[in-house]
Specification:
Blueprint: E1 2-4, H1 6-12, H2 15-30, E2 34-36, E3 40-45, E4 48-57, E5 62-70, E6 82-89, E7 96-101, H3 103-121, E8 128-132, H4 136-148, E9 153-157, H5 164-173, E10 178-180, E11 191-194, E12 213-216, H6 229-233, E13 236-239, H7 242-247, H8 251-256, E14 266-267, H9 268-272, E15 286-289, H10 294-311, E16 315-316
Parallel strand pairs: 1-7, 8-9, 8-11, 9-10, 11-12, 12-15, 13-14, 13-15
Antiparallel strand pairs: 1-16, 2-4, 3-4, 4-5, 5-6, 6-7
Bound molecules: nicotinamide-adenine-dinucleotide.
């Protein structure tokens, strides 16, 4: 079994690698070649969450699990609050193949999913990027979005405005003008990424212009919510995994309130395989409910393992 520690990941997996790997995994899901197992997520007390995301990709030859969670006391210890590890197994024998640090991979695969949705669903001429959120994931989201559209500026809102300058620094690195705005000014955006751990909607339907694409990436647990259910119900909704979208994703609220039928939610993989046309008009609001699936984690971890083996990196242990 190969151990690929967290510290090696940045040198092994690029945002482009993550984009390609997640695209392939969403397409394999849509073709019925890969599926996610039910998510396990438990509250450990004192705000700590722990769980398992797992799946099997027959075509990609991946079987495994990401174990991890949210530990709010970590920041005070100099660690990021989200901690995870990915375990890969041989799908034929069940033998362990690799253990891979999952923190950077989570950020890369989450940003990749959002960017794939923007790439496929946003209007081609989109030039203003809006971001709701400014935590650990937000910078990754900004970088990934900037790879798929020629944005001219970035506007952002966060409940805690003191966190926004760090996101502004990422925009500056990309050469993009950055402005902190109030929520109504998000109507200027052609694409909006939401990436917060909010328990209640911040972004309302009145804050979003016709034709906007939204990638709602923060809601991955029962009880989290970033956008108004009416906004979800009025949009064409796409997701990574419908079963997760309606239970732990942003759509849990619109579906729970009877505003949206689960059958109307389209797997993004169907757009990638051309089974669904995606955006149908310039006025339509498209919304990607990115809940984060285990297969995404396996796909990027497999890239890390392949690269590490090619370069003789990582630690081989007998099991
Ligand atoms: P973080 O702790 O670094 O940042 C949290 C963000 O949420 C900040 O912008 C903060 O200001 C905001 N926030 C906190 N409390 C809020 C409240 N009550 N109302 C509104 N905003 C609030 O977290 P992060 O690592 O950037 O992750 C952000 C979210 O994305 C989390 O909910 C995380 O679970 C989720 N996430 C989803 C996926 C996925 O695949 N969909 C993957 C990773 C993380």
């Amino acid at each position: 079994m190969l151990i690929v520690p967290e510290a090696l990941i940045a040198s092994l997996v690029t945002p482009e690698d993550a984009f390609r790997a997640v695209e392939a995994c969403f397409a394999a899901m849509a073709r019925g070649e890969a599926y996610n197992f039910p998510v396990v997520r438990e509250a450990l007390g004192e705000g700590r969450q722990y769980g398992f995301k797992s799946g099997l990709d027959r075509a990609g030859g991946q079987l495994g699990v990401k174990a991890g969670g949210y530990f709010p006391g970590n920041a005070a210890k100099g660690l990021i609050n989200h901690q995870s590890s990915v375990f890969l197994f041989d799908p034929d024998t069940g033998r362990p193949e690799a253990m891979v640090g999952g923190n950077l991979l989570t950020a890369l695969r989450t940003a990749a999913a959002s960017a794939i949705a923007i790439d496929r669903l946003a209007r081609p001429e989109a030039h203003v990027l809006g971001i709701v959120g400014a935590g650990h994931q937000a910078g990754f989201q900004l970088r990934a979005a900037a790879r798929v559209r020629r944005f001219e500026r970035v506007i952002a809102w966060n409940l805690h405005p003191d966190m926004l300058p760090r996101l502004g620094a990422v925009a500056a690195e990309l050469g993009l003008p950055f402005e902190a705005v109030d929520l109504p000014r998000l109507r200027e955006a052609d694409v909006i990424v939401t990436i917060t751990s909010s328990p209640a909607a911040s972004l309302l339907a009145e804050h979003v212009s016709p034709g906007t694409h939204l990638s709602c990436m923060g809601t991955d647990t029962v009880g989290k919510q970033e956008v108004e259910p009416a906004l979800v119900a009025g949009a064409s909704v796409f997701t990574d995994e419908v079963a997760q979208s309606v239970t732990i994703g942003e759509a849990q609220h619109a579906v729970g309130q009877g505003l949206l039928d689960a059958s109307a939610i389209v797997p993004l993989g169907e757009v990638l395989t051309s089974a669904h046309p995606g955006r149908r008009s310039a006025e339509e609001i498209t919304l990607f409910d990115g809940t984060g699936v285990g297969l995404q984690d396996l796909a990027v971890a497999a890239v890390a393992v392949q690269r590490a083996r090619e370069r003789g990196l990582g630690i081989e242990v007998g099991v």
